[in-house]
Predict the structure.
Amino acid sequence: MASAESRKNPAAAAARPPPRDFLVHLEAYLARRDGVDKLLKISRYAARLALAAAPRQLPPAASARLKSFESSVGLSRKAFRLGKFVQSLNALRAHPGLPPPLVLLAYGGEGVYYFVEQFVWLAKAGLLPAHLLPRLQRLSAWAELMGYVGSITIKLEEVAKMESSIKKHLAEGCGEESEAVRSMRGKLLLKRMSVVQDVADAVMALGDVTDGKGLLGSSTLMASAGLLSALISTHKNWNSC
């Protein structure tokens, strides 16, 4: 039996691609570096949240295994980021001339963060002297935070433009059920989710910069922010591959 939407707009229903086979979609997702990285991120912060939310309820042996697992996954994620700074560099190179300040802050901060994280991984893996680790981690945290400040600002401006565009279409007579408005609202939702993801990651970066003082010292808050960010990113990557 055809759906109401299909009866209202048969042309749109015919143009819509058929649903992808789940295993084929999963293979494409796992073939992407970001796909595997975000699954590792979910695993890491789920373990950290379990440790933070119920430390006394867990048997000592289970708690020790979870801590070891969380630490191991965190180190594995850093290995997955080898060379990832190149994508930030290319994003800056894509702009003709000197990039705007916010773009420079967003992609420059992100690029420095990913570049320094390579050396953090080498120090944690034992190849670089351990005494370098605190300085590398602080530099990495500051670069990450600056990158998110730029990224959040840019995305909030994009959200405002998208909302304005939707209002303009509605004022011109396009209904809420029109294909154009529905498409724009879908993109707007994804952009808002991306802002939430960046805010969650920025909270964690701020916690690293301030050495977890005050509210930012809450293990439950930090783990929840990390898990929220990972879930949103996984959803975006799944839909885009």
Observations:
- The chain has a mean pLDDT of 88.
- Residues 84 and 194 are 19 Å apart (CA to CA).
- The longest helix spans residues 133-171.
- DSSP finds ten helices and no strands in the chain.
